[in-house]
Amino acid sequence: MTNNAKSINIDIIKCPIITDKSTQLLEENQYSFAVDNHTNKEDIKKTIEYTFNVKIKNINTCNRHPKKKRVGKFVGYRKRYKKAIITLKDNYSIQLFPDN
């Protein structure tokens, strides 16, 4: 194991975000992921490049605040999360849906 691999925590990436807007961004070689709230762009970049073996051109992050949800008379909130939109260099892509 190299020194670079020791500092990478794969648990930073929680899941890919699959919405209408994020599937439209796939055409522009941009991918959306839900990541840990306390990570920075450098850690996200290292983890994505190591996990998917790609080169990243740009990263945009935003903190998504919890939305209020009601079920009957009970009011609750969705969990808050950080969203990272990753732009890859031209020759690279991530296969989110493997062919069976």
Keywords, separated by commas or semicolons:
4-stranded antiparallel β-sheet; alpha+beta; 100 residues; globular; single chain; two-stranded antiparallel ribbon; 3 helices; Alpha-Beta Plaits
Description:
The chain has 100 residues and is an alpha+beta fold. The chain is 22% helix and 35% strand. It contains three helices and six strands, in the order H-E-H-E-H-E-E-E-E. It has helices at residues 3-6, 20-25, 41-52; strands at 13-16, 30-35, 56-64, 68-71, 74-77, 81-88.
Termini separation comes to 31 Å
* Helix/strand/pairing category: alpha+beta
The appropriate CATH architecture is 2-Layer Sandwich
- Number of structural units classed as domains: 1
Would you state the CATH class? Answer: Alpha Beta
Task: Give unreliable regions as ranges.
Answer: none
The average pLDDT score comes to: 90
How do the helices and strands follow one another from N- to C-terminus? HEHEHEEEE
Largest sheet: 4 strands, antiparallel
Shape: globular
Round the Cα radius of gyration to an integer and report it: 16 Å
Count of helical stretches: 3
Blueprint of the fold:
Elements: H1 3-6, E1 13-16, H2 20-25, E2 30-35, H3 41-52, E3 56-64, E4 68-71, E5 74-77, E6 81-88
Compact description:
Helices cover 22% and strands 35% of the residues. The protein has 100 residues and is of the alpha+beta class. The chain has one domain (3-88): Alpha-Beta Plaits (2-Layer Sandwich).
